Task: structure prediction
Amino acid sequence: MSLISFPLTSTIHCYVPMELCSILHFLENKSILVTGATGFLAKVFIEKILRVQPNVKKLYLLLRAADSISALHRFNTEVIGKELFKVVKEKYGAKLNPLILEKVTLVPGDITLESLGIQDTTLQEEILGEVDMVINLAATTDFDERYDVALGINTFGPANLLNFSKQCSKLRVFLHVSTAYVCGEKEGLVLETPFKVGDTLNGTCGLNINTERHIVEEKLKELQSHNASQKNISSTMKDLGIQRAKKYGWPNTYAFTKAMGEMMLGQLKEETSLVIIRPTIITSTYKEPFPGWLEGIRNIDSFVVGYGKGKMTCFIGDPLSIVDLIPADMVVNAMIVAMAAHANESTDPIIYHVGTSMANPVLYRRLQDYGLRFFTERPWINKDGKPVIVSKGTELGTKYAVHRYMEMHYLIPLKILSLINTLSCKYFQSTYFDLSRKVKFLMRLVELFSPYVFFKGVFDDMNTEKLRMAARESGIENEIFYFDPKSINWDDYFMYTHIAGVFKYAFK
Result:
C-alpha cells in the first residue's frame, strides 16, 4: 500500500530538535519525577534507567498509596518484583538493593489531587528543589472508564502535575505521554499538531473542560440523592463518558479525556518546556531488556487470546487497514531522547507520534495470518489435554458485516428467546437474562473496538523522524536508545516475540 498519496499541507507543526549529545551523559546526576510508576510503560522506563544509567541522581516514583508502607508494598510487588527486572537483577546482583535504596524514592500520593496529594512536606520540598525532569505516565486506559475517574486522572491529573512541576526550581522539561488516538476516527494523514482549548473533532462548539467536571459533579449528586447503588453509579458514569465523548466527536471516554488533558497542558505550560508523546498501540518489548515482555492482556492481545483458545471464530476489522503497533521499549527510548532534545526550551508544545504506520506499516490481514500460523504450529492445550485447532475464521471486513453477523447470531436468537420466555410465563427467565447480558457485553465490545479495527488513518511522524535524524547525526548511543520502526521485521517479531509473549502470559 502506498502512503505517499496523503497530502502534506502547510499546517504541519514541525520542529527540528536541538543538537543532541550523549543521552547517558544527559541522564547522569539528574533527578526525575515519574507518575503512574506501577503502570506498564513506567516499569519499562524505570528498568531502562536503572540498567543503562545507574548514575542517575534520583528517581522519584509517585504511586497511588495512603502511606510509605503501602507505597513500598506496591513497589516491591508491582514493579521490582516483576520478571521485567531479571536482567537488572543479574547485572547488579547483591548491589541492586543498595542501588535502589540510594536512587529510588517512593512518593505516596495521587495525581488527581492538588500538590499530588503528597502529605510529607519534607519530601515535597525535596522534590521541588531537586527534580530536573517530570514524566507523566499516570493514566486510565479503559475505553469506557467511569467519566469521573477518567476526567480526574487523564484530564485534570496532568494539569495538577504541571502546576506542581512549575514550582520545581530546577525543572528542565515536562514530558507527557498521551495517545495517538486523540485524533478519534480521523481518516488520511494524522498530523503531529497540538490541541487548543475547546477544540472538537466534529465542529460542535461549546466544549468547556470545567463544565464537563461540573456535569459530572451534578450527576453524582443526583445519583446519591436517589440512593443509587454503586453498581448503578458506575454504569451511569460509564455511559455519561461515552455520551459526552461522542457529542464532541471522540469515539470513547479514553481518547476524549486524554485529548482534554493535552488541551489543559497547552493552556497552562507558560515557559515550561513541554513535550507530548503520542504512542500508537503499544505492544511487548522488541529487544530490551529482553524480547516479548508484556503485562496484562492489552488491546489487540485480547483477540489473540480468544483466537488461540478457540473462542473467537471471526475476525472483526478491515483486512486492508493498517494497524499501528509499536513495541514498548521503542516508546521509552523515544521519550528519553525527546527529553534530552528539548530540555530548557520554552517553545510551543512539541508533539511526537511514536508508531509504525508511516515508516513500516503492517496490514490487519497479516496479523490474522500470524495468529493462524502461530497457533497451528503451537496450539494451546485445553483443560482436557487436547490441542485447540484454529482455522482461518469468518472475516467481517465492514461495519455492516459486523452488525449483520451480530444480528443473525445474537440479536435475533435473543428476540426469539424473549418471545418464548413470555409465552411460557417466564420459564426461561434465567436463560434469557444470561444471554441478554452476553449480547450486551458483546455489543459494547464491538462498539468500543470498531474505531480501531476499522481505522483509516496513518500517523504522520515527521517530528519523530527529525528526532531520529538528529540522534543519528549527533552520533549518540543509538544502539541503546533505538526507536526506528523501520528496523522491525514483523514476521520475526510477531511469530517469535509478541505472540510468544502473549502465549506465555495468558496461556499458563
